[in-house]
Amino acid sequence: MASSFYRAEWSGDDLQQDVSEAHWVNNSLEVVAQTTVGSLVPTVFDAYARINYPARNGTPHPLSPAKTVVAWHVQLTSIIEVLVRSTKTPNECWFAVWEGNTALDDIRDKAPTADIAGYNYFLLKGPVSRATDTLRGLSPSLWWPADHAWCVAQHFDFPCTYLGGSAETVAGILALSEIESSPVRVDQIITVNYGQHND
């Protein structure tokens, strides 16, 4: 997801002291032996999609060589536009940044972390449009609006994003011409090497 595009930064003052909002995500994930879509994104939604990141070297994605390559920040801007329309709380969104990066070492004593599926995250809060912002250069791993209308998982182990929401929301994402996306099932098994199983 590297890009020369300028990305605004969250400040230490944006770190949330109350991380109880993350409980609904953790409680809605499916604990299974193999990683599924529902172990990354809450299982409460009507539909789900996978969004592939563009190849880092500017070449077409190997799964879709004919697809026009668009930088990730451009794709993310289009995705945000759909998601803003798909929530009643566009100005109140939660962003979870994994605490395991050394870039965050000096803020560990400034804010608590939330446990989501066995990983600890710092929580930030702001409008959906801040999904492009980073904390010490790190993108959020999970983000969702206060009304829980959808949830986005940019898990650090996967070269793609997973999203859950209403059928209309997911259809809006799938209709975006500048991104490479596909519908997925909540129980679909996924791997870091794109070894997704559709049976």
Separation of termini? Answer: 30 Å
SSE succession:
HEHEEEEEEHE
Secondary structural class: alpha+beta
Q: Flag low-confidence runs.
A: 195-199
Number of helices: 3
Please provide a brief summary of the model.
This protein is an alpha+beta fold. It has three helices and eight strands; from the N terminus they run αβαββββββαβ.
What features would you describe in this structure?
This protein has 199 residues and is of the alpha+beta class. Helix content is 14%, strand content 21%. The protein is built from three helices and eight strands. It has an eight-stranded antiparallel sheet with strand order 3-4-2-5-6-7-1-8. A hairpin with a 5-residue loop joins strand 5 and strand 6 (151-153). The longest helix is centred in the middle third of the chain and has 14 residues, at 72-85. The two termini are 30 Å apart. Residues 195-199 have low confidence and may be disordered.
Which descriptors would you attach to this protein?
199 residues; alpha+beta; eight-stranded antiparallel beta sheet; 3 helices; 8 strands; 21% strand; disordered C terminus
Walk me through the topology:
Layout: H1 23-28, E1 47-52, H2 72-85, E2 93-98, E3 114-116, E4 119-126, E5 142-145, E6 151-153, E7 160-165, H3 167-174, E8 180-184
Antiparallel strand pairs: 1-7, 1-8, 2-4, 2-5, 3-4, 5-6, 6-7
